[in-house]
Each structure stands twice: as structure tokens, then as C-alpha cells.
Specification:
alpha/beta, TrmL, about 30% helix, globular, about 150 residues, tRNA processing, 5 helices
């Protein structure tokens, strides 16, 4: 039986296993597929990755791809939404569709700057107060994933 996720969550070159494990847990909760784009800052069998996902990892649909082009071959870029603190458009101003991909950059670098300028109409920001530089990666993925679900349920 083939499973077609309603939502894809993409971590581009994630560095911290705890964050990736937490994002994986959120993906299980919302029924999303997790994509990890290499290089990764940890090993897939990392204890901390599994620990952060606790016993949910066995229920997670996930895939690791070697590079960005391999991901684009599986999920067309027209379905991608890029999350960045540098974006100007709020994540609540767009309509998410089933099959969309929520794309997040690494914890230390975010997404490549040229992606943000070239894809400005597909870049989204989660607003925060000025005292906060940005949300933690796993929190941002949860906020965005649940917004997509909220839209589909209303």
C-alpha cells in the first residue's frame, strides 16, 4: 500500500540531531513526510536523533536525499514554500495545498541567500518580536505544519 503524504517537511542540511528528531515527531503527528537533504550535521543512526523523536520514529515516513536536485526531482519546486527570517511575507498570508513542501534551512545558516532573492514570492516568515532573532527550527516546522493543517480543516 502506497502512502501519499498531504504535506512534506524538508530540512536542508540540518545540523542538530535533537531538532531533526523533534521535527520528525511533528511529522508523525500531522502525517507529513520528512525529507533530509545532505550534507547532514549528524549520522542518521545518531542516538540523539532517535531520542528526540522518542518512540515515534518507527511511525515516521522519511527519506534522505543526496542533494537539492534529487529532492526537486521528487517534489517540484512549484510546490515548495521556503521559510526564512529574511522573508517579508507572513506564513499566514498564503494558502497551503495538499502536497506542498515546507522547506527549512540549517540551524546556523538558514536557506541560501540566492534562493531567498530568486524565490521571494515563495518565501515565508514566521513573525517574532524584535528581541528574538528567529524561532528554533523544530518550533518553526511545527508552527508551519499546523497552519497547513488548520487551513485544510476550515
Amino acid at each position: 500500500m502506497s502512502y501519499e503524504p498531504k504535506l512534506h517537511v524538508v530540512l536542508h542540511q540540518p545540523e542538530i540531531p535533537y531538532n531533526t528528531g523533534s521535527v520528525g515527531r511533528t511529522c508523525v503527528a500531522v502525517g507529513a513526510k520528512l525529507w533530509l537533504v545532505r550534507p547532514l550535521g549528524f549520522r542518521i543512526d545518531d542516538y540523539y536523533l532517535r531520542r528526540a523523536g522518542l518512540d515515534y520514529w518507527q511511525h515516521l515516513e522519511w527519506e534522505v536525499v543526496d542533494d537539492w536536485l534529487q529532492l526537486v526531482g521528487q517534489i517540484p519546486e512549484s510546490r515548495h514554500w521556503y521559510f526564512s527570517k529574511k522573508a517579508t511575507q507572513s506564513y499566514t498570508q498564503v494558502r497551503f495545498l495538499c502536497g506542498d513542501a515546507l522547506v527549512f534551512g540549517s540551524e546556523s545558516q538558514g536557506l541560501p541567500a540566492d534562493w531567498i532573492s530568486a524565490k521571494a514570492d515563495r518565501c515565508l516568515r514566521i513573525p517574532t518580536r524584535p528581541e528574538v532573532r528567529s524561532l528554533n527550527l523544530s518550533n518553526a516546522a511545527a508552527v508551519a505544519s499546523y497552519e497547513a493543517l488548520r487551513q485544510w480543516e476550515t
